[in-house]
Amino acid sequence: MTYAVTERFFRSLKTEKLYREYATKTAALLGIAEYIEDFYNSKRLHSALGNLSPMIFEAKQPCLTL
């Protein structure tokens, strides 16, 4: 198994959020947490999903019924 997904996530995190100046440590923690929860996990385009955001990818999936 490769660590490509993890490496890609951390590369994006470092490029887009980590290497910037924050006023306080708390501001840094909140900014990074917000990026992960609100943007990276739901809105950012992912090549593994056909360059769709997870929200759009899930919306296009057929609903399963039991």
UniProtKB/TrEMBL annotation:
Coiled coil: none annotated. InterPro entries: Integrase_cat-core, RNaseH-like_sf, Transposase_IS3/IS150/IS904. Pfam families: rve_2. One of its GO terms (biological process) is DNA integration. Residues 7-60 form the Integrase catalytic domain. It comes from the Bacteria. SUPFAM superfamilies: Ribonuclease H-like. This is Integrase. It comes from Aggregatibacter actinomycetemcomitans (Actinobacillus actinomycetemcomitans).
